[in-house]
Structure formats: structure tokens, C-alpha cells
Amino acid sequence: MAFSRQSRRKAEKRKRFWAAAVKLSILLGAMGAVAYNAYQFGIALKRDEIVDLQGRLQQAIDDKQTLEGQSAQLTESLGAARAEAADYRRRYQAVVPSPEVNDLVEMVRAKLEEGLPAQRLALYIGAAQAPHDCTEAETKRFLVKTPIYDGANTWVRFQDVVTVTATGESALAGDGRRHAWFDPQQPVTLNFRALGGGETSRVSGTLPLHHSMVVKDREFRFTAAPGKRGFIEVAADTCAFGPSARDGSVAQTH
Questions:
Q1: What are phi and psi of 224, to 5 degrees?
Q2: How far apart are CA 207 and CA 232, in angstroms?
Q3: For 72-96, how does the pLDDT look when each residue is reduced to its tens digit (9 = 90+)?
Q4: Burial class (CB in 10 A: 0-12, 13-18, 19+), 167
Q5: What are phi and psi of 137, to 5 degrees?
Q6: Rounded to two decimals, what is the model's pTM?
Q7: Rounded Cα distance, 10 and 244, in Å
Q8: Is residue 249 classed exposed, middle or buried when 0-12, 13-18 and 19+ CB atoms within 10 A define those classes?
């Protein structure tokens, strides 16, 4: 009896052991299957990511090559456009007159509008040449006429041929009162009159000022600058006006 009960207990222990072993085996198998599936899923996921990244990398490479090609084309187009612009600039500069030429054209146009014959203008232009047979410069000074001064020493004469005078604005004192002398910072008007019924030519602006005129066969060249208080200093020299002047075909004054 006792032996039979002991045998049954051992049999039940073995049965429970194997049942537990089977359950553990099943659990381990399930865990292994889950781990394997997870591993395979992870590999597949990484493979997809790698394929996607490779695709993006290839697209980036293709885009880079495309952009490099476009950049090269744009650089070439830019160079061609700059060369064309430089060519147009050279052509423009070749046909458009300089400011000096424009000034001469305006002077000629003004004289023509005043009624001066074109042939006479052409005569003057043809007589023009580089200065020659020039005298030493002579400097004289005189007082500038202002709204409140028109007295003595307000003119000078060069070679007993050309008389020079000037008008300007009065200098202001600190309290606003006007002085008799002119303000050299303000514009002045210089008047050049050739004796013997010659015309008076004028030039206006801020000192220093330059002016030239032809009297008989000589060109008078003047430079006016501020002198001592109230005075203007004028330097003048003369040069032969050219062969046309010497044979008497050019007017005496202008």
C-alpha cells in the first residue's frame, strides 16, 4: 500500500515536471518565434530604409549634376551677356559725343539760332589751332561792384584793349547787415568789353572763373580768382589766333 502511494506521488511529480517542461518549451518556442519574426522584420525595415536612402542619395547626385550643368550654362550665358554689353558700350562710346563735344554743339546751335551764318562759324573753327606766340601772363586786381558799392577801382584794362568789371553779392555781417565788399563764396558776373565798339561778353559762376575772347588777331585768356577783401584778381595772357585772323578773315571780337 505504502509503496503504491509512493509510486503514485513520484508519477505525479514526473507528470507535473514534464507538463512544466512542455509549457516552458512552448513558451521558449513562442518567444523564439517572436524574436525571430522581430529580427526578420527589423532586417526588412532596415533594408527598405537602406534602399530608400540609396534612392535619395542617387537623386541628390542626379540633382547635383543637373544643377552643375545649369550653373555652367548660366555662367557661359553670363559671360556672353557681359561681353555683348561691353561691345555695346564700346559702340555707344564710339558714336556718342563727349561732354566737351556736346558743349561745342550747344554753342554752335545757340549761335545759329541767333542768326550767325554757318559759314562764319566754320571760319572761326577752321582758324582755331594750338596756342602759339603767347605773351607772359599779367595779373591785375579791382574791386567788385555790389548792391551798396559802385565806386572807384572797379575795373581794369589789359593791353588797352579789353576792360574787365565784375558784380557780386555783398558779404553779410554777423548781425545780417551788408558790407560794401563782395562775398567770394557767392556767384559773381564778370564782364569783358573790347574797346572800339566791341561786344561785351559775360561769364557767371563761383570763383575761380575762366574766359577767353578774340580781339583783332589775338586771343585773350582770363582767369579770375578771389583776392584780398573786396578784390578780384584777374590773370590774362594773349596768343595769336591763327592764320585766318592774321589775314583779316576772322571777325575782330566775339
A1: -110, 135
A2: 9
A3: 888 888 888 888 888 877 877 676 6
A4: middle
A5: -70, 140
A6: 0.51
A7: 153
A8: middle
